[in-house]
Amino acid sequence: MVSTGRGTIKTPAFMPVGTLATVKSVAPWELEAVGSDIVLANTYHLMLRPGGELIKKAGGLHKWARWKKPILTDSGGYQVFSLGRISGGAKKMATVTEDGVEFYSHLDGSKHFLDAQKSIEIQEQLGADIIMAFDECPPGNAKGHYVAQAVERTHRWLKVSKRAWTNRKEQALFGIVQGGTIKDLREKSARFVEKEDLPGNAIGGVSVGESRARVWKAVEWSVPYLNPHKPRYLMGVGEPSDIVEAVKRGCDMFDCVLPTRLGRHGVVWVTGGGEGSKRIVFPCGKTIMYKRVALTQHRYRADKKVLDPQCSCPACREGFSRSYVGHLLRENEILGLRLTTLHNLYFLENIMKTLRNSIGKS
Amino acid sequence: MVSTGRGTIKTPAFMPVGTLATVKSVAPWELEAVGSDIVLANTYHLMLRPGGELIKKAGGLHKWARWKKPILTDSGGYQVFSLGRISGGAKKMATVTEDGVEFYSHLDGSKHFLDAQKSIEIQEQLGADIIMAFDECPPGNAKGHYVAQAVERTHRWLKVSKRAWTNRKEQALFGIVQGGTIKDLREKSARFVEKEDLPGNAIGGVSVGESRARVWKAVEWSVPYLNPHKPRYLMGVGEPSDIVEAVKRGCDMFDCVLPTRLGRHGVVWVTGGGEGSKRIVFPCGKTIMYKRVALTQHRYRADKKVLDPQCSCPACREGFSRSYVGHLLRENEILGLRLTTLHNLYFLENIMKTLRNSIGKS
Lengths: 362, 362
Fold this sequence. Notes:
2 copies of one chain form a homodimer. By secondary structure, chain A is an alpha/beta fold. Chain A has helices at 28-34, 43-48, 52-57, 61-65, 77-88, 116-126, 144-164, 183-195, 212-222, 240-248, 258-264, 314-317, 322-330, 334-358, and strands at residues 2-4, 7-9, 13-16, 39-41, 71-73, 95-96, 100-104, 111-115, 130-132, 172-177, 200-203, 232-234, 253-256, 267-271, 278-281, 287-294. Chain A has 2 domains: 2-256, TIM Barrel; 263-358, no CATH class.
């Protein structure tokens, strides 16, 4: 459990991603009904449009977006690299200096600069309950010496982030462990971040293109050095089976666009075995199988079953059939992706509940 | 009030349009909360995809789309002309014969044929509570002799529709008055349709490009011949001030894409006077002013007011500001158009409630 001024977050917790201060297609009251205790919003996107100043004047993210429970904002570190890189084209890469990152907006190509000081300032304007230190997250295929440099910068920027962090009563700052899939770097980074003694710690730099086995190594090399009495947030992981594996390894907070993005693509998680299914073994030994179902496939055209007969999300509870939801998705009708998104968020929150029960943290 | 096997429809009634068996962006439970007693679905769209047969096998529209209250389906007559004409291009016009219409699908250009017999058969497969006779609706600029021919065909097709109408216990068939803006034709058509003594009557062929003054003429020439104890449905009218004017002239059912389409374009109806506002004078004398507000305009960027301070729709009640909703709309975030659509549907349903109170039919 994590306590904030806006209520407690039951852990292990999954945080739906609300990049632009809205979890795509979902209303705040629906998210409350899902049972989400906290959502994530992206500093990078909000600083570019509408800007931190406007949101501050509106009374902060909570008031502006009508969400009363906790919010976590990331630092923008991940996006200035990933989005700045893609949109800028070959000649317009984000440029890392020792102080920060010069990058090009994915919206209009305009040039911007972000560093730890500015990231924390914007996160203060946004007013989230948990804010993240500014870090550098190299891609999964980065060379060892680059990863080592990125770790050094991340550590230096953590110090700057901590100094820039002024609203300590209302905002908890989390540090981020980097180090790619290199054992020494992970251990070094975890020790460094832990020593800063912040309210929580995160493991970044996973799920960026490396193999699943390497993700678990990176986690296993980091976790032992991080205070077990503080939240350990594994960034960017959202596949249900991965979350369970990460919880077994000591992580207890997660965020990912997966449930909402899959939903918008017409894919739902469904309980049951068969082709392409995955197995989850909870810490208590309980086992379930689940798989992805792409509802626009022809075979579901006249399927009267609900999305997942074992589910009690609004879509399944109200009896919407695969046939009807598939029709809505084929026709690009918004209700279709609303229902699949809600279903996936419920499905994952249900996994989290089972996890909490499984480890006696309900 | 109109009674159906699935409940009563308070009149005057506005029917939100659910072309593809979903009112765009709105969930059935939200529509119930709006207070809508009935929705409309389009036979033309549903016959092309997914087809009447599939919906029949799914148990009909109500069961398939999870809507328990009444549904009205149109005949497809309007769309085979308007959509068949646009999509086909110059050489692929819809072709009217004395029996029906050959048209080209707006989806893939494939050739189809629809006549009164087939329209009613499909509407039986869909299983709506109110079904419409197959008619021809000429555009507002059609020549007089063409409108006269269309009236003749509409009358002949009404006879065929009536013969094809077999599920008379569960489905009420409405006839449609045509005749453009020609007095003699309107009177002739209204007399003819009334003589068929169907459960309800509609006035079609308005709001197809003619002036507002001509619309009222067409209504005034039709209404006196239609039984006042049966519903008189004015097709395709949805501007609040127009609905009030039509009710004063004896109409009591309406449908239009306007509230949902405006919503998707970021435009909301707001109570109040000023530039571009319209005046509504209810039958009881009560007067209100209202206007359209385009929320993506720069002037609302930091506007903390809710969409309409006098409204109690979910968007306004929950305190969503013009600033935040404008942001959502600019970013193409689905929650934005969900909130504007809901707001407009509430706004219009509120007008309908005031109308019902105003004429003592609450």
